[in-house]
Specification:
With 265 residues, the protein is an alpha/beta fold. The protein has helices spanning 18-28, 56-69, 83-93, 120-127, 138-145, 153-164, 209-224, 227-243, 261-264; strands spanning 4-11, 32-44, 47-53, 74-77, 100-102, 133-134, 170-174, 185-189, 193-196. It has a single domain, classed as Ribokinase (UDP-N-acetylmuramoyl-L-alanine:D-glutamate ligase, 3-Layer(aba) Sandwich). The protein is 38% helix and 19% strand.
Length: 265
């Protein structure tokens, strides 16, 4: 069965992150991609220079229209932008019984804020309890917990446990911000704790890696229903997409990963 995966996120006109990256990653991992857009951004590989948020009711209507007509096997949530959009998305998804992967997009790679500061509480209180898996990086985890950013694997374990206590089904805490030659991610659920290790790839072209990982994870979760297996498959796919990134020539800043590396090999 080809899983139908709905991405709820913002648009990146440069194609490396957001809805565009989600559609590529879902497709490359064997899913049928659908999209509900939360925001239009002005950005490229060098940063974000503007954003216009959609009306919350319009975002909810996009999501409801998909569910009214199409079997949805998993949902990936990225940029929400505001507390009003977060509340609207939480309301329309509540009770659907569909696996949800939440990538708590708060700050772009260049430092531009993509979630209003007062919306963090809404994300924490409304979206985390709905999520089957959340995929924060270390700065996002610190923001959600109002805590210092983890600088060690021991600190990552403590923060992952604190996030799990907020009500999500499982946590994939991404350790790419740690120093060192490895890029360790931690998978934690109520009955499993596993480190997903990988060597750090030397490239500046990592724009959209969080979107890519979470979308791949949602696709495999829709296929198998197994959060850990989905996390492993998503990590492997994202690593290969990063390895292929330097084969692309896109922009002058942080370029995108190569979502379709397999088709080029």
């Amino acid at each position: 069965m080809i899983p139908n995966i709905l991405s709820i996120a913002g648009s990146d006109p440069s194609g490396g992150a957001g809805i565009q990256a989600d559609i590529k990653a879902i497709s490359a991992n064997g899913g049928y991609a659908m999209a509900a857009i939360t925001a239009l951004t002005v950005q490229n590989t060098q940063g974000v220079s503007g954003a216009t948020l959609m009306e919350p009711a319009f975002v909810a209507a996009q999501i409801a229209a998909v569910f009214d007509d199409i079997r949805v096997d998993a949902v990936k949530i990225g940029m929400l932008g505001s507390s009003a959009i977060t509340e609207a998305v939480a309301k329309v998804l509540s009770g659907r019984g569909v696996p949800i992967v939440l990538d708590p997009v708060m700050v772009a790679k260049g430092g531009d804020r993509l979630l209003e500061a007062d919306a963090v509480a809404a994300l924490r209180e409304l979206m985390l309890p709905l999520a089957s898996v959340i995929t924060p990086n270390l700065p996002e985890a610190a923001d959600l917990l109002d805590a210092p950013e983890a600088t060690s694997q021991a600190a990552m374990e403590a923060e992952a446990k604190a996030l799990l206590d907020l009500g999500c089904g499982a946590v994939v805490l991404k350790g790419g911000h740690l120093a060192g030659s490895q890029s360790p991610d931690l998978f934690l659920s109520t009955n499993r704790c596993e480190w997903l290790e990988a060597p750090r790839v030397s490239t500046k072209n990592t724009h959209g890696t969080g979107c890519t990982l979470s979308s791949a994870l949602a696709t495999h979760l829709g296929l198998t229903g197994d959060a850990f297996a989905a996390a492993v498959a998503a990590k492997d796919y994202t690593l290969d997409a990063i390895r292929g990134a330097d084969g692309l020539r896109v922009g002058h800043g942080h370029g995108p990963t190569d979502h379709f590396f397999a088709q080029r090999s």
